[in-house]
Amino acid sequence: MTTTGYSTAATGRIWWQSTDPGTEATPLVILHGGPGVPSYYLEPLNALADERRVVLYDQVGAGRSDHPEDPAVFSVETFVEDLNSLVDDLGLATFHLLGHSWGGMLALAFSKKYAQRVASLVLASPLVNVEAWCADAAALVAGLPAADRQALSGPTEGPEYKAAEAEFYRRHFCNLNPWPEPLQHSFDELGMGPYLTMWGPNEFTQTGNLRGRDYTPVVRSLEIPNLWLCGSDDEARPDTIGAFARMNPEGEYLEFAGGTHSVHLEQPDAYIAAVRGFLARH
User: Active site annotated at which positions (predicted)?
Assistant: First the structure.
């Protein structure tokens, strides 16, 4: 059964969706990326709800949740407390966490403060260390055709810049054309408040308050099962993600050949099978 509703946190109302098959299996809570990219694009992961309760929600500033005007609201610490408030309201004592992209950093931050609540982590193309992410993005930009590299060094509003940006996204964000409806829907409703405040104007330009954030020490200290997923062409580069997975004895790593940052949409059967198998073991 699928239900939706709102939870009230200190920052405002948080929209949630819960799909519950009524089993005793440990629930899964899914954290979207961005910050500010609403959870529509992760709805295909509800395929996992045939075995366990799956909870999706829009973080404050995104999608169907409230959109505060105060930029001070948009911080890692605030989102951690919002998540804790939400799972309290939903009656979830312990659960698995799956965080995609920025949601991976949020999952790590939450597990650091509320370790007793987290049964395992699925870190899907995650942001862990902002400096490392930016270095990887620069390397990927350097791999673009010369005309695109030149365009990205020029005015951001020109058609050449937009075309080069689109080429980066095609190579490393989603290689499906057109984008699947859930992904397009998420970007049509991108919450620019948290995205600009915390990240920046696009995936490869970081100007926001996440600068300097590094959750590598949390990764090294993990004592719960943790699965790391990415595509071979992901903007979360495989060498970087694989290295994180090897930082603790509980880490597992899986790379999807030919996949990008949206590999859960590009290769849904293999992706769901991988997550399903991991959760079943833990």
Answer: 101 (nucleophile), 234, 261 (proton donor)
One of 148, 261, 262, 264 is an active-site residue; which one?
261
What is the third-level CATH fold of 2-281? Answer: Rossmann fold (3.40.50)
Residue 277 sits at the vertex; the CA angle it makes with 32 and 37, to the nearest 5 degrees, is 10
Active site residue 101: yes
Q: What pLDDT is attached to residue 222?
A: 98
pLDDT attached to residue 80: 99
Nearest Cα residue to 121 out of 102, 98, 103, 87 = 98
Burial of 159 by CB count in 10 Å (0-12 exposed, 13-18 middle, 19+ buried)? exposed
Q: Is 69 helix (H, G, I), strand (E, B) or coil?
A: coil
Q: Which is catalytic among the residues 101, 111, 120, 125?
A: 101
* Residue 77 parent element (H or E): helix 76-89
Its pTM stands at 0.97
Would you state the pLDDT for residue 244?
A: 99
Confidence at residue 157, expressed as pLDDT on a 0 to 100 scale: 81
Q: Yes or no: say if 13 and 6 are a contact pair by the CB < 8 Å rule.
A: yes
Please write the tens of the pLDDT for every residue from 180-239.
999 999 999 999 999 999 999 988 889 999 999 999 999 999 999 999 999 999 999 999
Residues of the chain with pLDDT under 50: none
> Active-site residue 234, yes or no?
yes
Extents of the domains making up the chain: 2-281
Distance CA 205, CA 186 (A): 20
What length does the chain have?
282
**66 annotated active-site:** no
Catalytic residue among 58, 82, 136, 234: 234
